Please model this.
Amino acid sequence: MKVAFFSAKPYDRVSFKAVNDRYGHELVFFEPRLTSDTAALAEGFQAVCVFINDTLDAATLRAIAQTGTQVIALRCAGFNNVDLPAASELGMSVVRVPAYSPYAVAEHAVGLILTLNRKLYRAYNRVRDDNFELNGLLGFDIHGKTVGVIGTGKIGYCFAKIMHGFGARLLAYDVHENPDCRDLGMAYQPLDEVLAQSDIISLHCPLLPSTHHMINAETLQLIKPGAMLVNTSRGGLIDTSAVIEALKSGRLGYFGADVYEQEEELFFQDYSDRIIQDDTFQLLQSFSNVVITAHQAFFTQEALTNIAETTLSNINDVEAGQECANAVRPPA
Model:
C-alpha cells in the first residue's frame, strides 16, 4: 500500500524503513502536519500515517478521501485529533497503536518527578558554573508519600509499580479498576479524594470529552497545598491558565509536563532563533518549580520499533480485508 507520512521526522524514517523490509509498503515522508491546508499532499495515497498534532477534522478527511485515501493509520495511542464520525461516514478505516511502550512514558513521568523534587536542572547548572552551594536544592523523600494515579491502564500501572518500588502509598482514580493495580495495594477513591490526599499526582488517562480540563480552577482548589502535578498524557487534560494561577498562589508546589494543550504550534520544531508568540506557554515555563519537556516521553528505541511494527501491521490487516484488533470506531 502507498502510505503518506505526515509530521515525519528523521527518526520516523529510520524506524519505519527498517521494519518495512518485512512488509513492502511504499512509504513517502512529508515534514508538514496534515491539515486541510496540506491535504493535497495526500493525493494518490491509499493511506496516511499521522501523529498526535495532525488535524484530521471533517474538512481534512473529506479532502483526502476525494483523492483516494481510505486508511488513517495513527502512529500513536490517542485519537482525539480524528473526527471519527466523519471518517465512518466516508468509509475510512482508522487504526492506532494502543501500546508501544508503557514503560517509556511511565519512566519519563518518574524522571519529571525526580527532576522537580531534587531540583536536578538547577543543580546541574550550578555545578557547571562551579557553584557547589546546596541552598535552594532541598527535596523530599518519595518513600512514605502518597501518590495519586489518575488513569490506571497499562501506563498508569507501570508508573504505579515504580512508585510502589519507592515505597509510596498509592491512590487511584479511574472509571475502570485495574486488578493488577489493586494487587500493588492501590486504593481506588473518587477523584476529589485522590486530589486532596496526594503529595504527587500523575495523569495517565486519555483525552475525552469527559476528561477535558479535568484539572481546572475548581479541582486545583482540592489538592493538598504544595502538591506536585505531572502530566505525560495529553495537554487538554489540564486548564493551563488555572495551573498558572495555582502556581502563583502557591497552592500547586510543582508542575511537570511532557504535553501542552496548544503544543501543535510548538513541539517537534526548533524555535531557538525565533520568538515564541504563545504568552501562556512563555509564562508557564518561567516558573522555577516547573519542568516542561516537548512530548518526548514515548521517545525510546523500543517504543519507535514497536510503533513502526504495529502501524505497518495494522495497514497490512486493512489492506488484506482482515479485522484489525487496533481499529478505532466512533462511539455508538
Notes: Residues 157 and 180 are 7 Å apart (CA to CA). The chain has two domains: 2-100+301-319, 102-292. The mean pLDDT is 96.
